[in-house]
Amino acid sequence: MSAKGRRKIVVAGSGPVALEVARQLRERGEALCLVDYDGERLKKARLAGFEVQQVNLQDDDELLSLGLGTEVDVLFSLLDNDADNVFLVISARALAPEVSIVSISETEETVKRLQAAGATKVIDPYQISGYRIYEMVHRPVIAEIMDRTVFGTDVDLEIAEIPVPAGSFLDGEYLDRLSLSSRYNLVVLGVVDRDYGDHLIFATNPKRHRIDVDDVIVVIGQREELERLRKEMTGSA
Amino acid sequence: MRLSDLVIRAAYWLEESQRYRKVKRAAYDLLENPHSTIRPYFDFFMMMLVLTSVFVLLYDVRHQLGHWAVKFENLVVVIFIIEYLARLWVYDDIHRHVIEVYEESELINEPFRVSRALREILRSKWAYVSSPLAIIDLLAIIPSYRPLRILRLFLLFRLFKLFRYAQNIQEFGSVLREKQSELFTLLTLLLFILVIGSSAIYLFESSSHGGEVHGFFEGIYWALVTLSTVGYGDITPQTFEGRLVTMVLILSGIGVISFFTSIVVSAFQEKLGEVRDRQVLGQLQKKKDYTVICGHGRVGQVVAGYLHQDHQPFVVIDENREVVMAARRRGYLAVHGKAQRLGMLRKLGVGRNARRILCLTGDDVVNVYITLTARQLDEKIEIISRANHHRTMKKLMLAGASHAVEPFKVVGLIAGEYIGQPVAFEAVQGILMGQEEIALEAVRVPRGSWLDGRRVEEAPLEELRLILFGVITPLERESDHVRHHYDLRAHRFQFNPGADFVLLGEDMLLVFGHRYSILRLRHRLKR
Hints:
The complex is a heterodimer of chains A (237) and B (527). With 237 residues, chain A is α/β, with parallel strands linked by helices.
């Protein structure tokens, strides 16, 4: 999205997970700040070149001083301990009802607890890794393709959400008649219509969907092709 | 001189003979090989033979069975003798000894002496003959020799032969063997008390003193009956001193019995886990192409859960006994132990029946070590390993892993993607995790089906409401378009092929769609 660099992201924690997340975000050009109560571990993060801040995460005032509730758009709660994460999510949610909170959980039960505490998204690394390993065992070719294309490290294909500008050539078209696959070498997965909520309406949905302004189409393809589509849509608007 | 030449030539001839080796191998499989499929049948047959022969022997005591019983007895003895000799033969190779001695003498330039080779052979064969199981085998045969008919009683030794064929009883024996020193201490103590007790009672209660003990043997008999707390009461002490001895003996008897019980119980308690592990390994030997999961932490549990759901065979190994117990409660095959040990991996069938091994412990050092060991045991086995640290990836690949997964990296990727496009990413993630109605599946185009040789646009994708993500083809297929393809290990992935892309048999369509639509497509391609 074009909002890159504008968001303020706070990553709580400085363990291996937090560092990995920070690294990925930095690669995507996001501005972020690592916070933790453990000064020793923060040193390591600072050596890796991140902006760091030592904060007592259990103190609401210190959280407020970070900009929670005012400037911060996304908070990652990536502490090593499930209880600490739940506590941080609850305090952050109480201070800032609007902020997106992403957290990780060590066990299945904590996923629900974190969601109840107000996390927007809970990532269960072990569940996901376990499933990936199972996929490698169960359907190795698909796992390999997804690794090589969408989810790997230096991948070629991207999943992108592209908003439809007013008056563009997609405006008013039916979702199943887009034929972007021949015109752009893109595969259309579906559309998000804000009028119907935040979920993805798949292109295979039997209820035909007419695209209008402010819908977001979700496509898979190479970066250049995605850029071409974006450009030509704004051009035709 | 002539004789030694002959011996050496015979030894080399045996060493080279394929047929001899084959026959010997077959005999080994039948008699000794714990992994062979035929051995259980042989064991069962021999057990039946032993039981029948002992039954005939007992029935013969009161009834006349005639010459059929004699013939049967002879047959059984012949089978036993053949078995005994076959085991002696299989135990090791005579000709190897000859060759070894010969080559050694060649090396130091000495004449080859048959007597030395013979000594070597006798020594190694004697090692077998003097082993407990071989002695039992022999005792089962010898009493049938007519002049030694008094030894008829020893025919019951045949029952001990059952030991050989029943693994459970052998396990019992091995458990007790672990406690050898304790049992020996107990036996010494028992003998000590027995000697003192029987001497004392003989002293005080002999017939000359008006007692009932008429000899030293009766003294021993009485002491043992009292000591074991059985106390028949056929011989009772009459004198004051005798009763005093009795009381002391009874008290020490309680001690000895409880000591014995506790040794046996604790031996079994200590060994219970091992016995169960051995049972699991036994079950595993009957399976093929299974997965070995090393480490039953969170990741291991998730993988095991999916595999279990899919009814795929697997075995779990973990260092933590409680974790192993938990896995067993879920109905998995689980073994307690360290997977990094070469012997353990071999026991788990790596290099034999195992098809793939997953190294999923939380410790990268252990994962690398298991990977290395498994690769060393089996060139072809598929190894998927978990890397908890980024730097371990390279090491795992060097060690021979086929794939590696980094849980923390996955979190990073998801977090990064999530920031960019939350809805899209969540949807795709949901599809890939199988949590949605919509699935991503590969549908094979069967060879010779109506789609074989047709173009992509002719496939009923739109009609069935499926989105084509790409086509999986063999590596050598060119994309006939300006479209992109990605080379995988053994396939080529043609992303979003054009409408005129020609599909051939064994290609796979990778489609997004409702599970039902995918089923319909598969069904249509079958016709």
